[in-house]
Design a protein that fits this description.
mainly alpha
Amino acid sequence: MEPKPAPARVRILDAAHELMLTVGLARATTKEIAKAAGCSEAALYKHFASKEEVFIRVLSERLPRLVPLLHTLAAEPGRHTLEENLTEIARQAALFYEQSFPIAASLYAETQLKRRHEDAMREMGSGPHKPIEWLDAYLRAEQSIGRVAPTADTFAAASLLLGACAQRAFAYDATQDGIRPPVDAFAARLARTLLAGIAGAAAPGLKSPGR
């Protein structure tokens, strides 16, 4: 018995993800996405209002799940150690930016395309600033129970962690070997270093940063 075909919405997102990675966001038209998904362009518009919405859904549903992790942790501060949580956040963020950067890079080459996507993200309550806000919310939740120091600037800490993860996505392409730092070790070192500056009295003892 042949397996049941995936629903059209799933096929569309899978096809869009693949095309955005291979031909770029600007050239991944709704017509090409629909063709790759095995459906009509009209069927695509039954599920998504625009290509911009398809792009946003690809980021949220086909890449590492950074946002759900941040929401879960903010709702349950005190779960696991702060170092474990920051390490996992850094790992997911590094993977998210690594995979999203090749897709989103073409936005910055075309002003009108970038503007359309920014307008769509505002309408949908999305955007590259949102993970910083949500990580800030998580750190403030930890601050409220004493695991982050009361004097710590949680917004700056969130910006530093996510900024470093985004930087990893492209900063190492020009090195001698063109290899990014391994994600697990990178996340652990980043989390330990950040934690050394923001940990509160209720946080457990810190490990030596090391390599």
